[in-house]
Amino acid sequence: MANIRAGEAMGRNHVKALREAQLMSKAELARKAGVSALTIDRVESGKSCRMDTKRKIILALGLKLSDKEKVFMDDETPEAREIRRKG
């Protein structure tokens, strides 16, 4: 998996950086995820999307759902972040 730096993320996610690290086009990711290329474009530009769309994108990138923070880092609630921090 590609090493993603915070500055490489578009908007609030790493979809574009992860897709490009796999040399995958927007159209290919859209096809694998079962969504439109326009949806991928919107997500990569930082617009919000449904949880189901996020799930499809994560799986289409070849990741596990447990890796969601690597793709959509803003999904964690403040409460969950605090629990994880206290560990």
How would you describe this protein?
- By secondary structure, the chain is mostly helical.
- The chain has a single domain (11-86), classed as 434 Repressor (Amino-terminal Domain) (Orthogonal Bundle), CATH 1.10.260.
- Helices cover 53% and strands 0% of the residues.
- It contains six helices and no strands.
- Helix 2 (26-33) crosses helix 3 (37-44) and helix 2 (26-33) crosses helix 4.
- The longest helix is centred in the middle third of the chain and has 10 residues, at 51-60.
- The protein is elongated, with a radius of gyration of 13 Å.
- The two termini are 25 Å apart.
- Mean pLDDT is 84; it is low at 1-10.
Salient structural properties:
87 residues; mainly alpha; 434 Repressor (Amino-terminal Domain); 6 helices; 53% helix; 0% strand; elongated; disordered N terminus
